[in-house]
Amino acid sequence: MKKVTIAIMAASVMLLSCESKTKTTEGSSSEATVQTAEKNAEEKGAICLLDKLSIRETAEPKGKWITSMSLGEQVKLTGEEQTNEATKKLYVKVQLTDGKEGWTPARFLAIDGKVGVMQEAASVYKRPDLLTKTEKKYSVMDIIAVTENQGDWVKVKGKRAEGQYIEEGWIKSANISNNAVDIAAAKFASMAMAKPTMTERIAALQELLKNSDLSSSSFISVIEDKIKDYESKNTPIDVQDVKVDEEKKEE
């Protein structure tokens, strides 16, 4: 009888031990799954497609402003997203390289995209097929994000120099540079060329050429040609004509 009792007790201890190990394993597995999901969310990134895109404390157009992002800047996604009730627009929470976090409209980002810049002007296609060519084109130094690859084709998202909105389409991958210096040179050249007067554009582009950090860019010759073009169109006002106009006003 004693032997039977001892055997039952031993079996019970072994059963409880197995259950404990199973629960511990299940708990560890569950925790590991959560940690993996959080890690994947943190590692997921996006490319900013609009210069000076605002980051705010809340997911709304008038939320408190924190900072802004640069065109082509890469950010991390925290995994949090929210649809604004008033605008019905989707917002995502992002983290910048300096650790700052905030909310920004998802429509101005290329999720899981890779930043690039156009080395050559390129036609836009509806699909990765030569028969689907459109009338749209990306210009040299347009900054875009590559979101998909298919052979020697890439799907890109971004605003064309001749366009008004952020668009998507397919182009040949050979037309794109992924060089960080080229991307930076193109971004600052675009800002210089947006100046209101020819004189200001010329001065800004000349200042850009003085930046040694950008001297290795393949766009240096393009920028130099642009300066020459602006200079040829920037006809100075004849001083004598100004004096004549002033004399006429006095009369």
Question: What are the key terms here?
Answer:
five-stranded antiparallel sheet, globular, 251 residues, SH3 type barrels, alpha+beta, 5 helices
Oligomer: single chain
Order of helices and strands: HEEEEEEEEEEEEEEHHHH
Helix share, percent: 25-40%
End-to-end Cα distance, whole Å, is: 134 Å
Q: Which spans have pLDDT < 50 for at least 5 consecutive residues?
A: 22-42
Number of domains: 4
Lateral strand order in the biggest sheet: 6-5-4-1-7
CATH 2nd-level architecture of the largest domain: Roll
**In one word, what is the shape?**
globular
CATH superfamily of the largest domain: SH3 Domains
Residue-averaged pLDDT: 85
Number of DSSP-assigned strands: 14
Query: How many strands, which pairing sense, and closed or not: the largest β-sheet?
Result: 5 strands, antiparallel
What this model shows, in words?
This protein is of the alpha+beta class and 251 residues long. It has 4 domains: 1-43; 45-110, Roll (SH3 type barrels), CATH 2.30.30.40; 114-177, Roll (SH3 type barrels); 182-233, no CATH class. 37% of the residues lie in helices and 30% in strands. The protein contains 5 helices and 14 strands. The chain has helices spanning 2-43, 180-193, 198-209, 220-233, 239-250; strands at residues 45-48, 53-56, 65-69, 74-83, 90-95, 101-105, 109-111, 114-118, 122-125, 133-138, 143-150, 153-159, 166-172, 176-177. It has a 5-stranded antiparallel sheet, with helices on one face. The chain has a 5-stranded antiparallel sheet with strand order 13-12-11-8-14. Strand 12 and strand 13 form a beta hairpin. Helix 2 packs antiparallel against helix 3 and helix 3 (198-209) runs antiparallel to helix 4. The protein is globular. The model is unreliable at 22-42 (pLDDT under 50).
